[in-house]
Design a protein that fits this description.
mainly beta, five-stranded antiparallel β-sheet, 9 strands
Length: about 110
């Protein structure tokens, strides 16, 4: 497990993100706010709506970061790199009830 990061969601539960051995960004979350030890099974982080971004897991990630916006919605940024080329940044973010992502970040 590489680069483990956490953020608190709008329900005050902790969510964790990491890169597994295959380079996929994974996601697990606290199931009950009253229990710090009951967590979901890890799943690949991916979009859950058709509004924006990819509903596929992000692969070839080498770094992941997460933060929470003022509304308690989590935003995850990951960096991918393939074959020694310059890498690409992607964002997957929450809106009420959904994950939107992965969206390629353009830097100008």
């Amino acid at each position: 497990m590489e680069n483990y990061v956490i953020a608190t969601n709008a329900d005050s539960k902790v969510e964790a993100f990491y890169i597994d051995e295959s380079g996929t960004v994974m996601h697990t979350w606290q199931l009950e706010d009253s229990s710090k030890t009951k967590w979901s099974k890890p799943q690949p982080l991916q979009g859950t709506c058709s509004h924006t971004g990819s509903n596929e897991p992000l692969k070839n990630a080498t770094r992941v970061e997460a933060c929470t916006n003022p509304n308690g919605q989590i935003q995850v940024v990951a960096y991918t790199k393939e074959g020694g080329k310059d890498g690409t940044y992607y964002i997957c973010y929450q809106t009420p009830g959904f994950w939107n992502g992965w969206n390629k970040i353009t830097q100008e």
